[in-house]
Queue: 2 jobs
Job 1
Amino acid sequence: MRKKLCALLVAALLATPMVALPYSAAARPQNEKKQRSESKYREKLHKEVRHQLVMLPWYSVFDNLAYQVDGDKVTLSGQVTRPVLKSDAEAAVKSIEGVASVVNNIEVLPLSPMDDQLRRALYRAIYGDAGLSRYSIQAVPSIHIIVKNGNVTLEGVVDNEADKNLAGLRANQVPNVFCVRNNLVVAG
């Protein structure tokens, strides 16, 4: 009796890993599929938020919109020249399926005729350069010029370090500019 009980116990112990193995192996692909579908969903949400922001009618080279997606919460940041653009950006992102809340940290730049003159002069200086003119062909050029109280910030993406330096150099040559902060990012 004791031998039978001992043999039954050993058989049960040996059979347990074989029985549990198919279930754990089946659970693993489900987890991987779930993670892949979540990453695809996040990527799709990022693309949709970017698309909605770029398609705003008043979005221009003198505005800078940035965003951060955390689950179903989107945080907007940047600077805009028109107050309507701030509210339009929030409304556009709220309308996206899967976005539960929007935190709007977009700064509206102060109205200033001097800043408006600087914006025009900076645009001509940067995009009028033969080496940088190719960036102006897009609907929303990739080099954004942010002017606040005479201080200039360059935001966006350029192809190489030489273009980044050239844009900063051209911006520094414009009269009445207090300082230039070159936040351009080199692609790739």
Note: Strands lie at 64-70, 73-80, 101-108, 143-148, 151-158, 179-182, 185-186.
Job 2
Amino acid sequence: MSTEEALPNIDFEHFSKLDLRVATVTACEAHPNADKLLKVTLDDGTPEGRQVCAGVKAWYEPESLVGRQVVIVANLEPRKLRGEISQGMILAASDLKAEPPADAEGRPGPDERDVVVVTIEKPVAAGSRVS
């Protein structure tokens, strides 16, 4: 169970500005200039698709994401992450591991998290809105 406190409430107008969409992972590889990032190519229902950089390398092998449908924030301002453009964000949930790994002397290590990419239960068209 997560012990993180909830963020302050936002009004519906702010929430409605988020463009959450379903996208299908068509390709995925390790980011060439970052240890924690994957470079993910997505079919988002547009002719050109998009690329995002996702900080899930510690939890996912790139090939394990190919073919999955994920939820993205489609209207997040693009930005360059270590030389690669990221045109959105893949949603993921995180929680503290039940038993954080121990260090070399057997003491509990730092808070370690399990991270799970938000996926779709059954196939829908790429670009479908999430509400």
Note: The domain at 12-117 is CATH 2.40.50.140 (OB fold (Dihydrolipoamide Acetyltransferase, E2P)).
